[in-house]
Amino acid sequence: MRNRGLQPICPIESRFHPSEQIPLRTLQFKRGLLHELRKGNATKEQIRLHNLVQQLPRAIIIGVRKGGTRALLEMLNLHPAVVKASQEIHFFDNDKNYARGIDWYRGKMPFSLPHQITIEKSPAYFITEEVPERIFKMNSSIKLLIIVREPTTRAVSDYTQVLEGKERKNKTYHKFENLAIDANTCEVNTKYKAVRTSIYTKHLERWLKYFPVEQFHIVDGDRLITDPLPELQLVERFLNLPSRISQYNLYFNATRGFYCLRFNIVFNKCLAGSKGRIHPEVDPSVVTKLQKFFHPFNQKFYQITGRTFNWP
């Protein structure tokens, strides 16, 4: 049962109305302004002239870490009715930030036109216990996006990012196998955060105490890398946005091995070089053990969300 006793602290302002129409024709005449909004560079004069406002997000990418949250946010920003918070704000998962209050959070949002949708992403939200209730108190009808990858691959990617950080500081780090497998029991080590994060269903069940499953949309992070447009069109529909992202906006960069973004004839953008790190080789027997461990959790995840993946 979802928690009905909580009252949203912003019950009116940031509600998302499915029938609300985005005036895209108006936006098309403000392309120069849209370009500045996408970059978060609105001037004081533009703010005054166009009645720009800082809005609470109507959709949040809540996870999953190393699932492709940055790529998803940047790609959604191709849509003229979407503006993004450039940095991870960590409002709901950080007690110190949360204590600063909702006006502090709003102040971290980009300026936008009143009919645009603001989206932020902080992957730690998905796995942090207090976050579902806190977001519910802000807006009980918010749209929630979760981007996932095959759980074992995601865990190795998580490890790789931490490993790279250690190496930059000339520090040594354990091998992935030694962290993922408990040396005493030879079983999967669920105390290891990279493993725990990949048990998607455990975290989702906590969120479902507050929000109905219809308010979540699951994005295939593996497909977003290889064939992003169909995934983005599904998100457009989920957010009740007119279809505006097209193949023109996405081009494959053979050097990087990733799709890059084309906003218009003069403005292109590729994701940071840190994306797509080469993973260390992992003992195949450990990979198999992890895949078998995640399998029942994956089946339950498919059942709850209605979205099936070809995971082992």
TrEMBL record:
Residues 57-301 form the Sulfotransferase domain. It is found in: Golgi apparatus membrane. Pfam families: Sulfotransfer_1. It is a single-pass type II membrane protein. The keyword tRNA-binding does not apply. Disulfide bonds join C260-C270. Its EC number is 2.8.2.-. Belongs to the sulfotransferase 1 family. This is Sulfotransferase.
